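haha ok so turns out i had the wrong file open the whole time. this is the CORRECT one, sorry everyone. sequence first:
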Amino acid sequence: MSQYSNLEQALKYYFGYDNFRPGQRQIIEQALQNRDLLIVMPTGGGKSLCFQLPALLKQGITIVVSPLIALMQDQVEALRDNGIAATFLNSSLNSYQVRSREEAILNGKVKLLYVAPERLLSDRFLPFLDLVHHQVGISTFAIDEAHCVSEWGHDFRPEYRQLKSLRKRYPDIPTLALTATATDRVRSDIIQQLGLKQPTIHIASFNRQNLYYEVRPKTKNAYAELLEIIRENEGSGIVYCLTRKKVDELTFKLEHDKISALPYHAGLTDEERTKNQTRFIRDDVRVMVATIAFGMGINKPDVRFVVHFDISRNLESYYQESGRAGRDGEPSRCTLFFGYSDVKTIEFLINQKPDSQEQLIAKQQLRQMIDYADGTDCRRTIQLGYFGERFPGNCGNCDNCRSPKPVQDWTIEAMKFLSCVARTKERFGMLYIIDVLRGAKNQKILQNEHDKLSTYGIGKDRSVDEWRILGRSLLHQGLLEQTSDGYSVLKLNALSWEVMRRQRTVSLAVPTVQKVTVVDQVESPKAAEVEVLMQRLRSLRKQLADEQSVPPYVIFQDSTLKLMAQVQPQTKAEFSKLSGVGSHKLTQYGDKFLAEIRAYRQEQGLPTKPTKEDNFTPSVGLPSETELYTLQLHQQGFSITEIAKKRSIRPTTVVRHLCDLIEKNQQVDLNQLVSLEHQQKIWQVLDTLGDIALTPIKEYLGESYSYDEIRLVRGKWRRESKKQVSRRENVP
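then structure:
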């Protein structure tokens, strides 16, 4: 830590952010004290930073266990684009790549290593890990997606169970377990299964304030409404369906309606799924229509809307799937279309489960999902209550709060309902209680002699549906509880008794049928101007991303682009102050984005600062993963055309990589690419004309010189020019 006066300084240097998100600083401080930690933080809450920043500040290497190849590749790309020495080892690499990465690890050149649990615990890898521990030192094990260790989690993976052996093999190395969703039961299971020693448990709020939640009835107009949602929302979106057939149908319809969409389901080959996912991540296609299998393995922060065209199986899955929207903190929309025909489909799938207890629990979870869809309370109150987090309601960002239904006082009815639960000794579910209240004469009631209770028949004036709405609302408001063992037995709590003693009133929203739409914000002329520049910056980001074969958000996230468009910095010093701009990104992209902003301002007749004012000179950037791969092939003697063919990228992209590598002082053999005679002539012209556009240089040199040759020599010329300037500045 001696290099930085505080954690905020390290955060800005590596990641470009000025402040930590809630909870992050405390977690990082404890991670630096080598404590075992269990971190439960919602999607988009900044979990990864909780192990990434300590990894950079501690001695040795941090081993990150991640279950999905795409997820680890995304994270490594994003880290490397921040100039951070991270790498992964997985089945997508050839033996040469594996060997060279292992060599870099043993030479202490890597701070974060991402690896799947199967590889980590393999007979070949464990001895290598021992060697790493001996030579470099392992600072931490970070277990990402830790809920995968629990059978009670929504995505159980048996191979995660074996991770406990790490604790036996390396008893003194701290372990951080991280997950985006975990109920009490799952949290206990994670601690036990991973052998965490007296871990500090951090549970961040599950409230994603930037997400707008709404539920719409699934009528015959549902597809037209879906089309309207896609057209009125900018950016990328995911549409979830229950079956492959529905995915294919919707994709076909959307494409017919001029929406660029791709399918994702288990019926496609691995190659097709990977290709479609990559095209979505890189913004080549706008909408992914998918079964619930999609999304776990992606780290795309700028998904602006998630639509569930069919209902989810349970609230935890729905929270996870809808939570793939707005991970960058920007306003995003989550819509669920609800129809009872979908419930029948899920019930059929549940009945295929061989274990009767599993069936029972799955049916209870489905009932909770239906209660959410039918619920008239604040959507956040219902969602957060599921995870044991009390939320008072009135969130202002869901359909039930934006368009509240008329509220009535149902305190008397609530007292009757809760009193009936008490008199039946808290041993029954909701439908049984309703039957007693309404005076039903079924055999079970008569057998239990509940027809003799004082609460028998006192609720005949209300329908079954009305009592069900009340029971559901009591659960959502935390005024009543139910068991989670599949039987849904109702239980009273302290708040229930407050209601029965008239110490607390109960209000109930009366359902009315009406369409809810997001309130449109009137854009000011200033906002329109910002949007024009934002589109230009997006285009530049996409171009740079395609050249490097990375997703656009790896370059800069939408929130940083928006800041650029609003603030319009004109010098590197100003640019460096933007949230999301670290030292490495400033070096790598600062000039390009500043040039775009200056060009825009000139076209608009706005004042621009002369570039000579900008004396901000950061250190030379590190090569990215994709540039290093090009460098390896170049050093093996392959030509530009051969490298392009091998990597399935354009030759111009290869040239771009080589130019950047030369500027970054890497071992590129320019003599292999440009003849000595041409090098000398181009160098003379650059010395004469300076660093100007390529066209006048090409015109000056004539037809026998190519643009690529000029670019490559200019890379070396720029590098040497910077060295000379640096030497002059350092002369006393």
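The chain has five domains: 7-203, 211-402, 407-509, 525-613, 625-730.
again sry for the mixup
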